[in-house]
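re: that chain from earlier
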Amino acid sequence: MAVGKGEVEEIVKARTDKRDYRRIVLSNSLEVLLISDPDTDKCAASMDVRVGAFCDPVGLEGLAHFLEHMLFYASEKYPLEDSYKKYITEHGGSTNAFTAGEHANYYFDINADCFEEALDRFAQFFIKPLMSADATMREIKAVDSENKKNLLSDARRMDQLQKHLSHEGHSYHKFSTGNWDTLEVRPKAKGLDTRDELLKFYAENYSANLMHLVVYTKENLDKVQGLVEEKFREIRNTDRSGFRFPGQPCTSEHLEIIVKVVPIKQGHKLGIVWPITPEIRHYKEVPCRYLGHLIGDEGEGSLFYILKTLGWATSLFAGEGDSSLDFSFFKVVIELTDAGHEHMQDIVGLLFKYISLLQQSGVCKWIFDELSAICETKFHYQDKIRPIDYVVNIATNMELYPPKDWLVGSSLPSNFNPSTIQSVLNELSANNVRIFWESKKFENHTDKVEPWYETNYSIERITSSTIQQWMQSAPNENLHLPAPNVFIPTDLSLKNVHEQVKLPELLRRSPYSTLWYKPDTVFLTPKAYVKLDFNCPHAGDSPKAKVLNEIFTELIMDYLNEYAYYASVAGLYYGISHTDSGFQVTLVGYNHKLCILLKTIVEKIARFEVKPDRFAVIKEMVTKKYQNYKFQQPYQQAMCYCSLILVDHSWPWMESLEILPHLEADDLAKFVPLMLSRAFIECYISGNIERNEAESMVQHVEDILFKESNLVCQPLFPSQHLTNRVVKLEKGLGYFYGVEGLNPNDENSALVHYIQVHRDDFMLNVKLQLFALIAKQPAFHQLRSVEQLGYITALRQRNDSGIRGVQVMIQSTVKGPGQIDLRVEAFLKTFESKLYEMTSDEFKSNVNALIDIKLEKHKNLREESRFYWREIAAGTLKFDRRECEVAALKQLTQQELIDFFNEHIKVGAPRKKTLSVRVYGNKHSSDYKVENSEPVQPGSAKIDDIYSFRSSRPLYGSFKGSFGHVKS
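^ sequence. v structure.
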């Protein structure tokens, strides 16, 4: 029997939110939020357990994280290993979990008609899980593989270093991931059995009164309440007292320090950190949000604006981080240029000068009111998101906030309390600070090593008087508070749309552009989505052009920043990004002032001038980005090589890196007019915008670029319209390309095993999609769970400009890529029999699951727009794709699926086309030498040189036509 219904204030929800909510408390003290959404296609659930990594027993680091891995294996009621994940995947869903310091969260989503059984399987993990000895040993290896994947991540390394430099007796100090050493070697040396400790940890800590459940369903609240009471009432309640971690982790020895750190990647970063009072205690007053809003401001007169003007910084973040109920930190993180690195003391001095300015100015009510107004509009006009994300967000809120604020959290500042904000501001003092300074320049100049990630660092003491000196010697710049935000929308009305337009229509076509338009008749929010895709033949005709184009788009963003930053703060987001064939301008958010921002952006493009000082900063930033490609995860490197092999006219980043040192501002000044001299703009406009508005927006863009007296662009010649072409692999051949990993210190290897199948076709698409749906979980189970090849293991579809295929991606320290390739083929051989043994009911169930996935409605305007833009970008223009593919699925027979598998996927099939990209980590460098020198087997073909191979192969036809790829 549930208790607690109606005992609390009504749950605050957005004005536009049509869903129903109910809080209940089960007889075992499990607190639950029920959500009814009759419009949803997916149902979801999230269980948040207030037992996290801070609860790890001493000497068993990572045990809470390990438990999170183990819980999903099996239960007494459903003992077949991995059957839960199999059920979820085969019915259109997904599932995952994570462990944080104070809690762990488990969640899933699934097609609505399969929710009840999925919820029952989910509940059993918290009632009677099975954690077998065999699975325990395998999953310790998975945790170890996950940790090895993270060892060269600068973010992980810095996070652990900050924990390391805290009081050893505080839970914050712990290493939370776990590895083979902490979960197998050390416990065994102490005579401990890890599985026994795991079961003990679960039994002692997992109690219903420490859990919060959110359930999102189509059903009415009464029905879902009955379902939840039935499924979850058997969770044991031991009335375990909640875990708290009082006291600040940092003692005096951990404050007033500068920590010099050697990162993995190129670049310099400054992290200024203060332990503070957690904002959760004052979530209506939001002191950290108020201070982060000002210290993180990027407009004229802000700290970042000054640092950028001086050429010292490329980004700045300010706000609360690593927060808990009992302690928290306020962080300012600044990405430095080479020049900025040489001015660290000035930068810290300027930061403290800005904090001093805030002290002198006092807490400003108008700033709080403006922030409150922005937050209120954002909350009440928030986009609907995926149910799986929504339930996780709310479940993590339930312990932190009273029930009426579970949906709101701290997103609605409402109490202006200057003393609360002032109190946290006072904590941002010189005697309470710790500074983390990252740079490769500290290599061989450090004397300490962090034990878990082996990060090299050194510590120096600083005093308040030192920082005072830095403030006095810092440049005397005009720091000041921001002006009122002119981009805050005041007109949130909805436009009249008389016709029910279901699909985008070609509204306008000229020699300069095409305009695809779709008014919003579904989401009914005061928002719009605008995409301008500039097709410029000179933008990508060489590696040099590619990198100059990238610098150009970065500079436009740079020039706009202090003006357009306020648009993003007010909920109008923009981006300018380079593409292989030009560049794109994207705007999404409130439509009220969108036209003003678009006009400013296009005028910046039309009147572009190279500022040599900013060119130097952006060139340095882009250079570091390319230098850091070698530190990508090996599976990411394999994906890059795969694209380089398959996509015609793609340029390798190594060549761009070779060109960069020789580029000067004058090169860009000559390039941009050439790039813009011939252009065609593909436009997509959707949302709360009327037809005539959309047309006039595009007309205005054309007027600025193509028709003003100082002509910027001319239309393309018919022969200049670019197409995207993909290499056609040879039938019956297995190509392979092997290369050593770019980072000699990375022991991980990776394989991308790609099977190319067909050019976009509805029936072939659904056969491929159905195969991928059926094979996804068995592949994960066999290659990851059973064989433990690596933590990163996935089978998924691939689509290159309408050329469809499937790929298996695995990253491993256990086996080299050549051996992994054999394991993938072995899996495909065993899977073949499963396909033959599938019953007709199982086949129908899988078909229905895929139909449900395809008919899932878009959640918001951005999601819908991206779906339609993909059709425009590829040139396929099949806006009714989902309905057409569902129709094809309904015609598909089981024998046709088997025939498809036998023709395109089956090992040894005469028409099969495969490409294996193998990246060898340092652990398998000997494999690389051996496999590289072995004779090529019959049916295989080795790729020695990517560009020779690419130029020797035929290409698939492009879907793009010759006139704005609209085929007459």
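DSSP finds 31 helices and 27 strands in the chain.
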